[in-house]
Design a protein that fits this description.
alpha/beta, 345 residues, 8-stranded mixed beta sheet, Rossmann fold, 13 helices, 2 domains, TATA-Binding Protein
Length: 345
């Protein structure tokens, strides 16, 4: 029985093992590996599909969101039935992935990642993969992985452009070295304000997976470069990154994201069908610039004191200090998802 199982294993992954960068030894290492994927939207769909088909041993999929019809363009794991049922992405992903590889060991976790649970989520991982859409969660991932000495792979896409880099604690710069502070919302692009091409999602997701395989097989040391691609222009370049001596995460070991010194608190206002998002540190939003970015996605009304942004059945009141009141829901996860989708943090 064991011999028959091994023969099926060799046949299934034979083409991958023929590649000199993997080989039989690398395939064995993949089968013994544990990967945590945080976010299973566009990038996460590509990453999860590739990891499962490649025979990675155990994969934990973490996502707080539900499948919607507008996801179907670039989130390749889902279909119309998932959208009609509003299935949690992590749950729907697990079902689809088991059809691709019934021997895969998959854990679906439907939750909002925050400073109180991130360390538990990534604990025991050999690599953590970034499939998120916001910097707040990425800073949490960065601090938890740097503190826990866990490599992780950053990725981001919008429009026709995307970027990724591999972060190995003690070896490469961490995310905070690259972005010492969360960029202002008006300077961030999201798929819901800039659109997105499936081709850039597949490109960056595939680059992230290739970097993951290098780490898991131990075949190649990460370059420490930020890889930037634009599929519309047909360009892909790498920029060498430097560790910052005053980095609060990888140098000073302060890990501010884990101490709730940055990020946001989310409060449901009882009986008002409203959620308020308040950042621990004021963000300083340029309202007119942000309003122009939001115009293609919904109706905006801007004044010197706020932006009123209307989309679907929701109304977002955005203030210059980054505080947002989300009307039309009492669910903090929905409010966080709307903030990430349209504002970018």
């Amino acid at each position: 029985m064991m011999k028959e199982k091994n023969l099926r294993h060799l046949k299934r992954y034979s083409r991958q093992m023929l590649f000199s960068g993997i080989g039989p030894e690398g395939q064995e290492r993949l089968s013994m590996s544990r990967v945590t994927l945080i976010g299973c939207g566009g990038l996460g769909s590509v990453i999860a599909t590739s990891l499962v088909r490649a025979g990675v041993g155990k994969i934990k999929i973490v996502d707080r969101d539900f499948v919607e019809e507008e996801n179907l363009l670039h989130q390749i794991l889902y279909d119309e039935e998932d959208a009609r049922k509003h299935l949690p992405k992590a749950t729907a992903a697990r079902r689809k992935l088991l059809r691709m590889n019934s021997s895969a060991s998959l854990e679906a976790v439907v939750t909002d990642v925050h400073y109180g649970n991130i360390e538990e989520i990534v604990a025991g991982s050999h690599v953590v993969m970034d499939g998120t859409d916001n910097f707040e969660t990425r800073y949490l991932m960065n601090d938890a992985c740097v503190k826990g000495n866990i490599p992780w792979i950053y990725g981001a896409v919008a429009g026709s452009r995307g970027m990724c880099t591999t972060i190995v604690p003690g070896v490469t710069p961490c995310l905070r070295c690259i972005f010492p502070q969360i960029p202002p919302p008006e300077h961030l692009h999201t798929c819901d304000t800039s659109g997105v091409l499936l081709s850039i999602v597949q490109t960056v997701g595939s680059l992230q997976v290739s970097e993951c395989f290098k780490l898991l097989t131990g075949r190649q040391t990460p370059s420490g470069e930020l890889i930037y691609c634009d599929v519309w222009e047909g360009t892909c370049v790498g920029t060498k990154l430097q560790r910052q001596e005053d980095c609060a995460s990888c140098q000073k070991e302060e890990y501010p994201a884990l101490k709730a010194r940055e990020g946001a608190s989310v409060t449901a206002l009882c009986g008002r069908n409203t959620v308020m998002i308040t950042y621990y540190e004021p963000k300083g939003i340029h309202l007119e610039t942000l309003a122009k970015k939001l115009e293609p996605a919904g109706r905006t009304e801007v004044s010197p004191d706020m932006i009123m942004f209307h989309v679907d059945t929701y109304h977002l009141v955005i203030f210059p200090d980054g505080r947002v009141i989300v009307k039309g829901t009492e669910d903090p996860n929905v409010a966080r998802a709307l903030y990430s989708k349209y504002i970018g943090n």
